[in-house]
């Protein structure tokens, strides 16, 4: 993969702190090369104190757009000219487009979640769902589920039940959805909720590299063969949680599909060009396995 820069080369990138762990530069530069676009995607390590100045500077420089990651996904909103519907509800932005000096915010995580789960819509709609975790990723998952799948009930299971309660209250206010229950992530009650759900979505970093031997659930008895288990972690692709669910015969989905799908939406917003999902996924898997 190589980039050649010209006077008219468009710059896109990612802002976060730290940033060296991100796969986004690899993903987008592969897509740029495949589509033969005069773009380059760069990482920008920006501490929180410099966020406002960085966004102003990038606007002045004419940078076409950028992803926003931890810890700026909420703080960046105050510096934007406008935001999409999903950002206005969930209060988190991960993609910014520079439209002639006006910064427009989007949350493409919601698109990635939707595209990943759409093939299972019949199994999800009108049924019980369990979301493990209560952070920003859980918020994006729950927003997408309520808007597109209308589950019968959503259980939020979290180590800190107060945070889960806050999320429950948030969606009751923002989306008028009152069918959320919460549980502290302790057996046996939490595991009963997990087992009783048609879809289980894990949204915490537990089990992510280099802690591959960790999992919020370690017993296959918690899962059933009728379930779908979706782990947002994408490195490793087959987490201990997914291995455990597979032992029970559950359908499993790793976070790689969501990662590529949300990147595809960001790419399309910046370039108005279709993202080569299959080719990029193949390249990323080869990269991760090398």
Q: How would the global form be characterised? A: globular
How many β strands by DSSP? Answer: 12
Oligomer: single chain
Helix content: 25-40%
The CATH architecture of the largest domain: 3-Layer(aba) Sandwich
Number of domains: 2
- Low-pLDDT stretches are none
Quick summary of this structure?
39% of the residues lie in helices and 20% in strands.
Molecular structure report:
It contains eleven helices and twelve strands. It has helices at 24-35, 51-61, 85-90, 109-117, 121-124, 136-148, 161-174, 189-195, 240-247, 256-271, 277-289, and strands spanning 10-16, 39-45, 65-68, 82-83, 95-99, 102-106, 128-132, 153-158, 180-184, 199-202, 228-231, 251-253. Helix 1 crosses helix 11 (277-289), helix 4 packs across helix 6 and helix 4 (109-117) crosses helix 10 (256-271). The two termini are 15 Å apart. The strands form two sheets. A six-stranded mixed beta sheet has the order 2-1-3-5-6-4. It has a six-stranded parallel beta sheet with strand order 9-8-7-10-11-12, with helices on both faces. With 290 residues, it is an alpha/beta fold. Strand 11, helix 9 (240-247) and strand 12 form a beta-alpha-beta unit. It folds into two domains: 10-106 and 257-289, Rossmann fold; 110-253, Rossmann fold (3-Layer(aba) Sandwich).
